[in-house]
Amino acid sequence: MSYVNSALNNGMRKVSYSEKDVQKLIEDLGVNPNDAEKWHVLGVAYLSLKEGSKAEDAFMRCLKLDENHAFALGNLGWLYIVWRKNKQAIKHLKKSVKLEPGNFEFWSFLGLAYFQKGKFDDAVQAFDHCLAIKPDYYDGVVSLGMTYVEMRMWEKALETLNLAEKLTPNDHRILTAIAKSLRQLDRIEELEQLYLRMYELFPEDHTLAMYLGKIAFDTGRAREGLSYYKKAVEIDPESLIGWMVLSEELLKLGRTEEAQAAHDRHKEIEDRLKRDNTQLQG
Fold first, then answer.
1. CA distance linking residue 271 with residue 133, whole number of Å
2. pLDDT over threshold 80, residue 4
3. Which residue, 20, 79, 239, 246, has most beta carbons within 10 Å?
């Protein structure tokens, strides 16, 4: 999930290093190659410069000298999550939190590794450890909420994601996950109010108009629903599903000419997408 990448990027401390810094570290290690901490710093510097393979090598050199270097273990675990090497990430992060049980970020990273591996119960435990140390750690709260979504534990997901929303309001991905939980719990009035709020916050997202249109139609407000569907295809004129749904609802209302026009637009987009796909495959 994209949220995992976001949590990883947010969680890693933003330390900036330059090529000159790296060169100085390499020179120092040439004089004293047994300095485990300096190897660790070199690894962090390489991470800062987005040179993952070199960072991995530096962390491994550090751990060869000091196998219990908790921060090298944790940072290497972070790198393995990025590379989706979750088994290796879990191995290193479990050892890092055993050595540094108060490091909430490493607990959060461990939870992300478990999440990517589909071990959601273990992920919840790791995120709980993280939040026991720092209850207002935003990425930990979000990650726990998203894990509950994957587990289809909608009440817990809603409770946790609402806490995340209070910590950092108006995050589209969090509001979308809250909306999903409300839909699953059939809390339609709250869901509609949330979509109305999101519709104002994110007017470029045509799917919000689609959702509002569906709720309006489902609750007997056809005219209002139709205006939302029209707004959706106005926001995104290339929306295949938008034109399809608009055509279907217009036909139900007996507005055959408008329905046919919407259907023709849907068919035009569909045919073009098929041609483009054929050309790409060819």
1. 55
2. no
3. 246
